[in-house]
Amino acid sequence: MSQIPSNATEFCAAMVAALLLAGCGLGDEALEDVDPGAVPQRVTYEAHVQPRLEYYCVACHNPHGSLGNAGGWNLSSYRLVKASFASLEQAALVKQIMPPGGARRLTAEDAAILRQWKRGGFLQR
Question: What average pLDDT does the segment 39-56 reach?
Fold first, then answer.
């Protein structure tokens, strides 16, 4: 088994490269395949976004997580998620490198809900 490089940047770069080579994506669905009725018009952090982030992200991306705030992203509060949404969107929706490896992948419906939250102005409640 290989060791994790002592430099966190090297480790993150290695993980990104491995994921890109593995061709991870949003499951087997395309965003166009999502039933428009499945995505609420009014998406809020508390009702729609927070549960998804708890399911996919927060175990690693919080100060007390298993990886100790992995990648410097703390996704444990509305304020922090809203502030880092552009990076989250790039990693999870555009580049599709998060969640990494064999972790549970966002579904196309999850991605559509996150995008609707952005379009709706990042409503908290």
Answer: 96
> What is the tens place of the pLDDT at every residue in 7-37?
443 433 333 333 333 333 444 456 567 887 8
Q: In Å, what is the CA distance from 100 to each residue of 25, 33, 70, 121?
A: 10, 23, 11, 28
Using an 8 Å Cβ cutoff, are 97 and 13 in contact? no
Q: What is the pTM of this model?
A: 0.71
Contact 76, 63 (CB under 8 A): yes
Residue positions counted in the chain: 125
- Nearest alpha carbon to residue 67 among 91, 115, 75, 122: 75
DSSP state of 73: -
Other CB atoms within a 10 A radius of the CB of residue 22 amount to 12
- Is-contact 116 122, C-beta < 8 A? no
Q: 3-class DSSP state for residue 44?
A: strand
Cβ contact 96:16 at 8 Å:
no
